[in-house]
Amino acid sequence: MDINQGRANGIKILTRALVHLSKFDYRIAKLDGGSLRNAIPREAEAIIFLKDSDVKDIEKIIKDVEKTLANEFKASDSGVKINLSKIDQTFSKVFTRKFSDKVVNTLLALPHGIIMISRDIPDLVETSTNLASIKTDNDKVMIGTSQRSSVESAKKYIAQSVRSIFSLAGADIEKTDGYPGWKPNMDSNILKISKDVFKNLFKKEPKIKAIHAGLECGILEGKNPGLDMISFGPTIMGAHSPDERVNIETVEKFYSLLKGILKELAEQRVN
Question: Cβ(117)–Cβ(124) under 8 Å?
Fold first, then answer.
């Protein structure tokens, strides 16, 4: 939901740091970042093997990269940090330099963020892609991405674009089921009922918004095309993040609104 906020992606930040190490003889042992496909990863880490003689030069480079990226994201995501530290951990094997470079270049090429703004609704994100996760397992690197769009054809297009990058890298690709697009219907009957009930209950105009998020409504519409639907609920902040929380005061208002809508629907059916 917050992909329009311009926040930093931890995996992209890590990638941009690793790119600057290309002139050094290093190897990747482990990569870890993100967990959920619908959340922008806040953190990511790499365990790498370096020559002792290169450590000081690399520390300086990492500091410079951190300064550059902190300035780049200062308006949208202040506090970007890149830490380089020595760890006491042994690994029986590491990835080859050729494979390490291929992983870094793939991560660098993968798009992340807004792809298209809606042509119908001002300032609404229509299509986006999220570089969501990266994990290592023995001799494998697993990268997870997620594509969203209110227009199904646009979602398929960006998914194909991401798939082509993985294909060029020689990766095995696995597709999972996602949320179908759900285009807003501002002439919806249930929307009109909800607006009227809201005004009667709270004596003010509701704010009707389309949001860029995966919703169950898209799945339901796929099963029953033309189904008249809206999505509403209590106020949630920091969705799909460790800071996710709900405004308790709005839960009671939401429940009152739900009861009012159901009552109006029942009366319309009787009449």
Answer: yes
pLDDT in tens, 39-88: 889 999 999 999 999 999 999 999 999 999 999 999 988 889 999 999 98
The sign one gets for the Cα dihedral 257, 262, 263, 265 is positive
Domain limits, the chain = 3-168, 189-270
Model pTM?
A: 0.78
Contact 35, 133 (CB under 8 A): yes
DSSP run (H or E) holding 199: helix 189-202
CA distances from 128 to 5, 196, 226, 241 (A): 12, 33, 25, 18
Q: How long, in residues, is the chain?
A: 271
189-270: which CATH number, 3.30.300, 3.10.50, 1.10.150, 2.60.40?
1.10.150
> Using one digit for the tens of pLDDT, what is the confidence trace for 185-238?
888 999 999 999 999 999 999 988 877 766 778 788 888 888 899 889 998 887
Q: Give CA separation, 99 vs 1, 24, 32, 147, 168, in Å.
A: 34, 15, 16, 26, 14
Is the torsion defined by CA of 154, 156, 159, 164 positive or negative?
A: negative
